[in-house]
Predict the 3D structure of the following.
Amino acid sequence: MKTRKIPLRTCVVTKEKLPKKELIRIVRDNQGNVKIDLTGKANGRGAYLKRDKDVFNKAKVNKILDKHLEVKVPDWIFAELDNII
């Protein structure tokens, strides 16, 4: 039987290549709205974060998501990320 390819993505904070299921995708759509994409299929520019509170805090302090998504990420996104874990 053929083995399925596991899609790998890179965390924007740690630069680790991890399976897509172990990451959370943050998306900016064409209107500049930022949202958390749990399905991994929403349209727009995406950035992946490892599922870890330390990674979320580092992304917030260093404004890494702001740089990758090219828009100011609201604080409620980080509060929502803390609730997901």
About this structure: The domain at 8-84 is CATH 3.30.1230.10 (Hypothetical Cytosolic Protein; Chain: A;). The CA atoms of residues 28 and 69 lie 6 Å apart. The first helix runs from residue 53 to 62. The beta strands are 8-10, 17-19, 23-28, 34-37, 45-50.
